Amino acid sequence: MTPITYTRHGDYLLPDIALGEPSLEPLTKYGLMRLSYLKHHRPILYSRLLLSERLHRHLLDTQQAAYERMNTMMTGLIEQNPPPDKATDNLAWAAHMNALRHSAEETVLVELIYE
Prior knowledge:
This protein is mostly helical. The chain has one domain (23-113). The protein is 63% helix and 7% strand. The chain has helices spanning 29-41, 43-51, 55-80, 90-113, and strands spanning 6-9, 12-15. Strands 1-2 form a two-stranded antiparallel sheet. The model has no long low-confidence stretch (mean pLDDT 93).
């Protein structure tokens, strides 16, 4: 750990702290959900990640893992429960796919976001 240096500004000593390079990758649904969870339910972990400048990388990794897991689970669920023909029964197909997506998302939230 490097010692913190200070600069005098009038009567005050202010730490010389610089932020790292900003990431250009935006956070999406799962990254923002993980951020909210850490802020409200795991404040110590949130603070540690924030102060060590690893928070954004952690959120991006979680976000990527969540999307990959969703794709894998959706493929498996579609193989196990084939949807009705989209051309003949569009509403039943949409309802079936939404149910599968919600089922997969519930698992992803428990496994990756709210752990």
